[in-house]
Amino acid sequence: MRISELSRRSGAPVTTLKYYLREGLVHEGERRSGNQTDYDESHVQRVRLVRALLDTGGLSIAAARRVLATLDADDRSMADTFEAAQHAMTDGRAHHEASDAARRRVAALAGAQGWRTTPDNPGFDLAARVLDDLAAIGYEPSDAYLDAYAAAADRIARADLAALTDRESPALAAELMVVGTVVGDALIAGLRRLAHQEATAELFPTTGDAHAAPATHATQRKDLP
Amino acid sequence: MRISELSRRSGAPVTTLKYYLREGLVHEGERRSGNQTDYDESHVQRVRLVRALLDTGGLSIAAARRVLATLDADDRSMADTFEAAQHAMTDGRAHHEASDAARRRVAALAGAQGWRTTPDNPGFDLAARVLDDLAAIGYEPSDAYLDAYAAAADRIARADLAALTDRESPALAAELMVVGTVVGDALIAGLRRLAHQEATAELFPTTGDAHAAPATHATQRKDLP
Q: Which UniProt keywords apply (chains A, B) (predicted)?
């Protein structure tokens, strides 16, 4: 297919496709006679994957390139692919270092859940910096607060891993592992915002008139966002 | 205090402080005679808050400014502040539109959890785009997968709201609501990475030699990340 057809099939504008090709995120098409280049199904799939990583996952071009490289390398193990996906979202993000106290608390939390982790797991720094941020505004999170987060993380992680076993081949499982790791953060962030609205309505009932009843929301087509 | 002392207290370099001041994220200090400007505790607090929003939360300057404006306005209700925080992370992020089918599935998921939501909740689009991304790589999430995410989101949201009631004043509760909404995404993302390592170790036991036993991790000081 031509680039215009690739654009139509993948939903990405032609200028975006040219950008992806120039940045090496999408493999070149086959050059034909004249000025024409041919693309195939593998390009459609790849463009969709790149969009998921960049748009929904919010990855930088450099981070997306690293993640895609592990998917493209035939000799990478599942564990290597997993590690690349784990680091993708946190690499290159400007940030201050987490305090030792916050890291210790996260390590204790992981230990209490029985998680076997390695110190280089980017989750330690990410979670510990949140504790520092909360401390900076004078909030010391209770054990109940952190336990709720840890239990939720445990539940999600099990669902993520169970999903991998549904895939027909190791290559497809690796692809889902990468995309799932990156966009799963957005899924829980989105659902958390929906759940917040319910929890806020309970806590501050004065805003209640703006809320639809749950039953109508799932059934009335024109009420959908 | 002088700007050098504000830098030491807040942990932000002087150039960063000047940038925050210029962008209007931090209020001006009091001009003294000569070339000197005085800062106080309110500046220390504000700089820490700005860093949490920008660094850990990954907000743009524009999004942080909008969120801070709702905190600064005396006449804003808790519900207004909440809405501003809800939208902060999703505003201005370049993305494609979610499909109707994905939105319907998210609406059904929210309905099944009994969440009262409004169609403008940014969580709908955020979560629905993830479903589209997964569909783009040929993965149709099972009900069990989505239910696990929704149940986790429900649990986290309740913990978030319970934390607000610990705060001594409405102003402090509003501050926690904003920071918690923004950095809470990073907290669950970090813990999810730690939980993934455990779940992956169970699924791919060959990588097991790299993992420490849970008990040692929480107790051995030098093993901490």
A: DNA-binding
Residues of chain B with Cβ-Cβ distance to A210 below 8 Å are: 118
Q: What is the pLDDT of residue B75?
A: 66
> Environment class of residue B88 by beta-carbon count within 10 Å: exposed (0-12), middle (13-18) or buried (19+)?
buried
Residue A30, φ and ψ in degrees, nearest 5: -90, 125
Is A185 inside a domain boundary? Answer: yes
Token readout for B155 is 């649990």
List average pLDDT for each run of 10 residues in chain A, which is 225 residues long: 93 93 93 88 91 83 86 73 74 68 95 90 90 88 94 94 84 84 88 87 56 39 40
Give tens-digit pLDDT for B121-161.
Answer: 889 988 999 999 898 888 889 999 999 999 999 999 999 98
Residue A225 within any structural domain of the chain: no
Alpha helix locations (H) across chain B?
3-10, 14-22, 41-51, 61-72, 78-88, 100-112, 122-136, 143-164, 170-203, 214-219
Residue A1 lies in a domain: no
For residue A112, give how far its alpha carbon lies from the nearest alpha carbon of chain B (Å): 8
Closest CB to B197 among A95, A118, A148:
A118
Nearest to A101 by CA among A129, A142, A139, A138: A129
| CB atoms inside a 10 Å sphere around CB B198 | 22
Place of tokens 């981070």: A63
Contact of B6 with B17, CB cutoff 8 Å: yes
Query: Which position has the token pair 């991998």?
Result: A164
* Within a domain: A168: yes
Which of chain B's residues have a Cβ under 8 Å away from the Cβ of A162? 144-145
Could you give the number of structural domains in chain B? 1
How open is the CA angle B106-B107-B109, to the nearest 5 degrees?
A: 60
Q: CA separation (Å) from B48 to A96, B9, B14, B120?
A: 11, 9, 14, 30
Which token pair is B143? 């009900």
**DSSP-derived 3-state class of residue A30:** strand
Contact by Cβ (8 Å): B122, B86:
yes
Whether A184 contacts B196, CB under 8 Å: no
Range of the domain at B117: 57-205
CA distance A37 to chain B (A): 24
